[in-house]
Amino acid sequence: SGSGLPLMVQRTLAKQVSLCECVGKGRYGEVWRGSWYADSVAVKIFFSRDEASWRRETEIYSTVLLRHENILAYIGSDMTSRGSCTQLWLITHFHPLGSLYEHLNRSTLTRHQMMAICLSTINGLLHLHTEIHGTQGKPAIAHRDIKTKNILMKVNGECCIADLGLAVTRSQLSAGLHHNPRQGTKRYMSPEMLDQSINTGCLESFLKCDVYAAALVLWEVCGRVAPAREYRPPYYDLAAPDPSFDDMRKIVCVDAARPEPPDDPHPTMVGMSQLMRECWHQNASVRLPALRIKKTLLKLAAADNS
Ligand code: ADE
């Protein structure tokens, strides 16, 4: 399996984990800090109505070797029957700083910190999007729910991407095998998702949606470079806290509105503004692929350090 442990051992592991404190609650369920002997682990407890996300995430971590410093590391999954109730656990590494969303709400950033966050997030996305051939290979994977709440902050200043509950591969799409009733987050949905013009039979279409959502993440992060205003979610000035599909369609497709890029004249910030515009473009086919975003960020970072 993806954790490198046989199922019997994983089962045993889940029984040895004790839940310590709840660190997150949402529509998905809850995340707890758990302890396994001396180690902290994160335990995501899914609502049983979202069993499809637990299955999808468990399946992808178990069939694809996804060990990468910018992707949340998997330890194991567990399904336990408790009378009439099914308990679904996903056990991963624990990151004490929590999500990028929480981090941005708490802290302003130096340009250097901003760049470490953006580069590592894009590096994780690039790994997901890249097909690798060979015995240690992996298929190209579209995430489909990129947002700051699904990115975790590591203590070294880099990020890792979490929540693979909606992730899809090409073979799944062609087999018509992605029947998760859950949708991505409306605020981060691309124009082609919102006007339903997307070709849902094609993995590349979903990779472009990830790039659109990643551009909104870059905007959120850049908005916290000191001296900064307070944290704002994308479209904070145009969309209500829990916008409907139609609210977002009007904003993103009809009015073609986008967030206001930073107006800091520093060359790095000018470069970041241009990069986000290229990545949230209305026309999905001209958005940059993750590898091109990474190369642009590396160039901006090198110029800032020289
Ligand atoms: N919130 C969601 N997942 C988490 C994790 N793995 N570590 C810390 N906080 C989290």
UniProtKB/TrEMBL annotation:
It is an enzyme of class 2 (transferase). ATP binds at residue 44. Keywords: ATP-binding, Kinase, Magnesium, Membrane, Metal-binding, Nucleotide-binding, Receptor, Serine/threonine-protein kinase, Signal, Transferase, Transmembrane, Transmembrane helix. GO terms for biological process: cellular response to growth factor stimulus. It is found in: Membrane. Its EC number is 2.7.11.30. GO terms for cellular component: BMP receptor complex. One of its GO terms (molecular function) is ATP binding. Its cofactor is Mn(2+); Mg(2+). Residues 17-298 form the Protein kinase domain. It is a single-pass type I membrane protein. Belongs to the protein kinase superfamily. TKL Ser/Thr protein kinase family. TGFB receptor subfamily. This is receptor protein serine/threonine kinase. It comes from Spodoptera litura (Asian cotton leafworm). The lineage of its organism: Eukaryota, Metazoa, Ecdysozoa, Arthropoda, Hexapoda.
